[in-house]
């Protein structure tokens, strides 16, 4: 059967032949894992444990994983049908409206650019714990330079570097879960004792010490922990045989992430008392439960090992972020919604101007350590989390509208290269849960400034679209 009209992508999803299809399934899976496994797991997820209690945290991450899975199923259907560099910006443009597509593209660019600078700064601070005489700024410049070079070399070089950076994190998490389970079941000593506390710590303060409501109120943090999985959609435009590789990568990545996150939380909460299990939000590695558990098991240099892993996690997240944000600018330029220079490609097929400008967009994050670091850091993280949820909502709505129009044109589910199951339940539930998550940010007084800033940014995107680009459609 011939391809239907949808394959004729809108301007924002045009796919110049210069972008090389260099990624394989293993690259896609590791890109997704690398985007998601970061400091949120190693240092920051303790906020969820401290607010919800051990059982509540486990439930929160299971729910977060299911939400992410629903969103990724929707993305898989769209990405196989339209494997383009603009990804969900292009899908929103075609199946929601051109103004929303323009807004989503800019919002996703903001998501990664907001956190790019904080990743470099956090990595530099960790390096300073090893080399106190070396300036934070020098490490920041070195790390920014490394990530920029990896991105600008070629898509293949970026994908390969991300594969190995992500592998370090994956091996660490697997080792942590495996050794933790061995300690829990008394197969290896823990803190000098022959057996660990088994699972008694999980319920020592009751099932839900602060009630069940915090499970919902922490969903923004939890969903942000799973953010990065959608990078598969961005990379679909540069993937070999996307109809085969994209669905495989989505299924592999989501189930691995669910096991990694939930497994880690179970081990932390089972081995450490509730008071110690709350992972710190500070950058001090010694406060990480990974260090505590490894030390209690008897692994030498636990703090140095985890510091190295967290630095690779930060660089991996920055590597993925720069890639994703630059592809968004590239797609806007292809759509003639940014000057043509932003879609200019290097000899190796990377959007060089978009990469340079995105690096400059990371400056606010770099300044976070010099001016009110706590406030700026938390708000930047809040902005990144909120904008990510908005993008996820657009993915669900795009797939809902796409499938409805697909049926109206007389096509069948079996005609699709990949069809998300349980339509329309999956996109509707995904959209509702993401909406609840977005609203929860407004209820947090510490994140209210970021919430208002995000709404203003979204309004500004719509305004600029209707003022300057509406006539194109």
From TrEMBL:
Organism: Acinetobacter rudis CIP 110305
Topological category with respect to the lipid bilayer: Multi-pass membrane protein
Keywords tagged on the record: Membrane, Transmembrane, Transmembrane helix, Transport
InterPro entries referenced in this protein's UniProt entry, alphabetically: AA-permease/SLC12A_dom (IPR004841), Amino_acid_permease_CS (IPR004840)
Chief location category: membrane
PROSITE patterns with a match to the protein in the record: AMINO_ACID_PERMEASE_1
A Pfam family the protein falls into: AA_permease
Protein name: AAT family amino acid transporter
Residue ranges annotated for the Amino acid permease/ SLC12A domain, each copy included: 27-470
GO BP terms in the entry: amino acid transport; transmembrane transport
Subcellular location: Membrane
UniProt superkingdom: Bacteria
Transmembrane portions of the chain: 28-46, 58-79, 91-110, 130-152, 164-191, 211-232, 253-274, 305-325, 345-367, 379-402, 422-443, 449-468
GO CC aspect terms: membrane
Keyword Transmembrane among UniProt keywords: yes
Organism lineage string: Bacteria, Pseudomonadati, Pseudomonadota, Gammaproteobacteria, Moraxellales
């Amino acid at each position: 059967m011939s391809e239907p009209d949808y394959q004729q992508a809108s301007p924002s999803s045009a796919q110049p032949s210069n972008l090389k299809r260099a990624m394989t399934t293993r690259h896609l899976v590791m890109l997704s894992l690398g985007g998601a496994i970061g400091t949120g797991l190693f240092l920051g997820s303790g906020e969820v444990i401290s607010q919800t209690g051990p059982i509540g945290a486990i439930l929160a991450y299971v729910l977060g994983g299911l939400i992410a899975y629903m969103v990724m199923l929707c993305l898989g259907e769209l990405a196989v049908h339209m494997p383009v560099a603009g990804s969900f910006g292009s899908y929103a443009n075609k199946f929601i409206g051109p103004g929303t597509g323009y807004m989503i593209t800019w919002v996703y660019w903001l998501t990664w650019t907001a956190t790019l600078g904080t990743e470099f700064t956090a990595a530099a601070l960790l390096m300073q714990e090893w080399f106190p005489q070396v300036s934070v700024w020098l490490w920041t410049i070195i790390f920014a330079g490394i990530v920029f070079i990896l991105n600008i070399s070629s898509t293949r070089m970026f994908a390969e570097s991300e594969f190995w950076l992500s592998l370090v994190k994956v091996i660490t998490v697997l080792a942590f879960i495996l050794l933790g389970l061995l300690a829990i079941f008394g197969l290896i000593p823990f803190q000098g004792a022959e057996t660990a506390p088994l699972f008694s710590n999980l319920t020592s303060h009751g099932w839900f010490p602060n009630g069940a409501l915090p499970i919902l109120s922490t969903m923004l943090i939890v969903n942000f922990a799973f953010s990065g999985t959608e990078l598969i959609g961005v990379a679909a435009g540069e993937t070999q045989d996307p109809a085969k590789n994209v669905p495989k990568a989505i299924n592999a990545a989501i189930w691995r992430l669910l096991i990694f996150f939930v497994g880690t939380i179970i081990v932390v909460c089972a081995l450490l008392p509730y008071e110690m299990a709350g992972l710190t939000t500070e950058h001090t590695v010694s406060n990480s439960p990974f260090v505590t558990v490894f030390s209690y098991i008897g692994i030498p240099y636990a703090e140095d090992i985890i510091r190295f892993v967290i630095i690779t996690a930060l660089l991996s997240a920055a590597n993925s972020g720069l890639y994703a944000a630059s592809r968004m600018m590239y797609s806007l330029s292809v759509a003639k919604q940014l000057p043509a220079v932003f879609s200019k490609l290097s000899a190796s097929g990377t959007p060089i101007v978009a990469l340079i400008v995105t690096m400059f967009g990371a400056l606010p994050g770099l300044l976070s350590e010099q001016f009110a670091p706590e406030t700026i850091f938390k708000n930047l993280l809040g902005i990144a989390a909120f904008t990510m949820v908005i993008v996820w909502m657009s993915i669900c709505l795009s797939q809902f509208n796409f499938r409805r129009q697909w049926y109206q044109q007389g096509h069948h589910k079996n005609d699709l290269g990949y069809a998300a199951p349980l339509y329309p339940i999956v996109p509707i539930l995904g959209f509702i849960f993401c909406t609840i998550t977005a609203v929860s940010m407004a209820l947090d007084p510490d994140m209210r400034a970021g919430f208002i800033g995000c709404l203003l940014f979204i309004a500004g995107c719509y305004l600029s679209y209707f003022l300057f680009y509406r006539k194109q459609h």
